[in-house]
Design goal:
2 domains, Arc Repressor Mutant, subunit A, 7 helices, about 240 residues
């Protein structure tokens, strides 16, 4: 129930905004729920429709709700906040948000390294690599597609693991191969979903995605993994802590 203090100097539209936000935070309105029409909500709260519209417009601009023409206003799905200030795995990111990570293996093979992989992983020509491509999910919802390529001689023990039930590749590297991943170099760019990516992620073709390229390193500065990933733009927020030196 949204309570308004009409004796307060605090603008009514901000009170409505905070009230709606509280309902969502307390999960009275859940992800994907349809919020009452503006007229109904205005009548219930005893305010002008424009007051409700301004509150919902603010929330839509902040990504809290989604407004769809002809259908109404819906509670937006939570976005995963990935920090760019620390090295973490997909599983760690999901668990930190209270979500359950899972994976569907799309491809797993041992093959000869490409020219690009030789360069990124500091290999010699004709070296073998282990490629693992997975559809990453959170609470059963597709979030991204990750393709990890690792030097085969470093990860022989990983190649027979049931990766559909393995949450974290980094944990497996540490516990099975004795390899600790301590740092990474990563680039990020915005791209549009191709037909094949859209189909795998369950989104529309052309939808914005985040493309991430990462090389991870061991404590001896040896490249351990080259990973290229595509994450849903409607599900991710990237955050970084900045300091003035």
């Amino acid at each position: 129930m949204i309570d308004l203090d009409r004796s307060s100097s605090f603008p009514l539209y901000l009170q409505v905004k905070q009230g709606v936000l509280k309902e969502i935070e307390e999960e009275h309105w859940k992800e994907g729920d349809l919020i009452k029409p503006e007229n109904d909500l205005a009548h219930e709260l005893g305010v002008n429709r424009l007051t409700v519209r301004q509150a919902l417009t603010d929330l839509a601009e902040e990504g809290v709700v989604v407004r769809i023409r002809g259908k109404g206003t819906f509670v937006a799905h939570r976005k995963v906040a990935q920090s760019l200030s620390r090295l973490s795995s997909f599983s760690e990111d999901m668990l930190s948000m209270g979500m359950k990570p899972s994976s569907e293996v799309l491809k797993m093979e041992i093959r000869e390294a490409s020219t690009q992989e030789v360069q990124h992983l500091s290999l010699i020509e004709e070296s073998k690599v282990f490629e693992l491509r997975r559809l990453r999910k959170a609470d059963g919802i597709p979030m991204g597609i990750e393709t990890s390529v690792l030097p085969y001689n470093l990860v022989v023990g990983l190649t027979k693991l049931p990766f559909g039930s393995v949450d974290s590749l980094y944990v497996a590297l540490r516990e099975i191969c004795g390899i600790e991943v301590v740092r990474a170099e990563q680039s990020i760019e915005a791209v549009s979903a191709t037909t094949s990516l859209a189909k795998m992620l369950g989104v529309k073709e052309g939808m914005p995605l985040l493309k991430m390229l990462r090389v991870t390193y061991s404590p001896t500065n040896k490249p351990v993994e080259w990973v290229h990933s595509f994450y849903r733009g409607d599900r991710y927020i990237l955050r970084v802590n900045l300091k003035q030196f």
